[in-house]
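Handout, section B. The chain below has 292 residues.
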Amino acid sequence: ARAADVAVVFLGMSSPACEGESHDRGAITLPGAQEPLLEAVLQAQPRTVLVLVGGGQLAVEAARHCQHCAVLYAFYPGELGGDAIVRTLFGLNNPSGRLPYTLYSKNMVSHRNIHEMDLRSHEGLTYRWYTGKLSGPALWSFGDGGSYTSFHFEWIKGPRQVAISADAGIIPLSYVVRVSNVGNVPGSTPALAFVEGGDGVVAPLRALVGFAKVSLAPGESTLVHISTTVAAAFATVDELGRHRLQACRRVIAIGGGSPTESWVRKEVQLVGLDVVVAGGTGSISDVEQLFV
């Protein structure tokens, strides 16, 4: 590794004994001697690409804290996975995927039972509720990901004040941003719209409320419309399971998930009396459940 220009290390879940449908893992670290192997390679060659193979979360802290290390999460890529990995490593494919879950520090499991599914207990779980008050910041969060090009997001329009209504489940809410490829190669990026600013007890700290994906040539721009409903974006669930809207201030954040790009953020104020939403929050809530 020390003599190479760049080291490439393949690590992860190597057998059905590590993870599978019939049993749960008791840790989120790399199994066996893989963690010390990774640390040794990074010490010898900081310019390392870590290719992770696996399905569940893996705490690869050594890679996260190495300034020149890159991580390609291959998951379980199937028969043509090798071709896809090689094409991506050599720049023949420009990646645009984003993490479908949050990756935590390995200390997280010392502060909670990993099998406990109460998402709000202790320091929380998932990007919606995780505070990191016990284990520290997440290594990577839901929606994170990179590209061989860079994108710029510009706010175009969207309501800054929203009236509370019992019909909020069907009242549309739309935001528009301009996305530009400011890099040198063609690429694709998602436009992820989050509502931020919840208390982390009743309202999530952050919640995905809409998304789109665009492919752009270098120098090309396009307008992206992200649509949802007022209730899907801002409603909370009370102790009786009802969707409720309350006067509050929230932030709409829209971006592509890359750590090198800035997000556009605008404050939104909900005004009016508290109401129970008739008919729930609309179909976007079904989509959102795929990403928690």
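Note. Residues 120 and 201 are 7 Å apart (CA to CA). Compare this with the example in section A.
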